[in-house]
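Revision sheet: structure tokens.
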Amino acid sequence: MDILILGAGAVGLSLAARLSKVVDVHAVCRQKHADIIKTKGFKMTGIWGEETSFFSCGEDIPKDRKFDYIFISSKSTATRYICEQFADLIKDREVISLQNGIGNEEIIAEYTDRVIGGTIITGFEWTGDASVHVSVESGPMQLGRFPSGMDDSIQKLADTLKQAGVPVSTTDNIKGALWSKVLYNCALNPLGAIMGVPYGKLENPHAWSIIERLMHEAFMITAAEKIQLPWVNATEYLKYLKEYQLPNTRAHHSSMLQDLAARKRTEIEFLNGAVVQRAKAYSIDVPYNTFITAQIHFMEDLRTNGNKE
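Predicted:
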């Protein structure tokens, strides 16, 4: 089996490191990481183990290889660009979105009819070039045919990931799995970025009251779209978030916080922004998600454009 990972950042390179133990893999990443991986190896620490791995990587794709599976692990903001750049390669291939938010699979489906949705609720934090610390994990990776269903191709990939030591499960309801992760990210990611705190600090009752309102609005959208979720309503999900997900990711810092610190655009439009856009289609009022989306965009503008009048 030969696997390609496009847009390999902290998540993609960590996945490549694990997969390289059992299959052929190539990761398309920044050259600064590739140069180090080729000479000193990719360094991983944390709950996935401590190891140094060498694998094929670089800004280009080897021309003599035919890939069985193609992961896209980039920021959601780059999905369209990657699909355009590698359209000929993606066509008719099994393509897995391992990204945050809602809407990536729909974009990929414009370029191939073999789309696999994926979720991963694991914290990957850069500790240097070609060096990642895997900090927290709130459940296994999930894979399923998009928009729904399961088949042998997905099971074969899941078996390979398990062999590589990656926790993974399969589902015939990947939309539900994607929205389950979106709820988690919508609840914690932007507020953690705005306040500059790890997720554990969001248990504060003032912060939690905002999270409650964000989630009740999001559940109005999942109900309108008839998304099948493990929770009957927002109250039930909030209990799960507070008692299970938040404790397991207490030390994690928001990816939006990391993006803002690096003066990059965030994935807000694929998270709370996606809730806002879908709410418009149903004429549903979502003031808390609207506000927090605007707040993140304001912070993006301050950092990317400077404080201009």
